[in-house]
Design goal:
Elements: E1 7-9, E2 20-22, H1 24-32, E3 40-42, H2 49-64, H3 70-80, H4 85-92, H5 96-106, H6 110-119
Parallel strand pairs: 1-3
Antiparallel strand pairs: 1-2
Length: 120
């Protein structure tokens, strides 16, 4: 039946390519199915990199839930971009205390990181 929900891409860059914003799994599945074209929505980004990350986190979390490793890493990326824990909480629709916990988890030692990546 093809791709039932379009992927979302950003405007074409100088190279004529459209950067994928949402729908990586749909795009991979379409390629495996041998499709050469998929429906896509072109959406301009009005925000900055932090806004784009927050949108991707929300999209992926609503679809399948992020792993125990993915959410802390996303929070760490947003904090590294200069957002406060309160701002990250508002962006992701989560309480500040949960963001503080996720920020602490992001600093876990490599052995715990590897375990979290496997458990997902």
């Amino acid at each position: 039946r093809g791709v039932l929900q379009p992927i979302t891409v950003g405007p074409a860059g100088p190279d004529g390519r459209y950067p994928l914003r949402f729908g990586a799994r749909r795009l991979r599945a379409a390629r495996v199915a041998g499709l050469t074209e998929v429906p896509a929505l072109v959406r301009r980004t009005d925000g900055d990199e932090a806004d784009a990350i927050a949108e991707q986190v929300i999209e992926n979390d609503q679809r399948a839930g992020l792993s125990t490793a993915d959410m802390p890493d996303a929070v760490a990326r947003l904090l590294k971009l200069g957002r406060t824990q309160a701002e990250v909480g508002r962006m992701l629709g989560r309480p500040k205390d949960q963001i503080a916990m996720l920020a602490a988890v992001a600093k876990r030692p490599p052995a715990m990181r590897a375990l979290g990546d496997r458990v997902g």
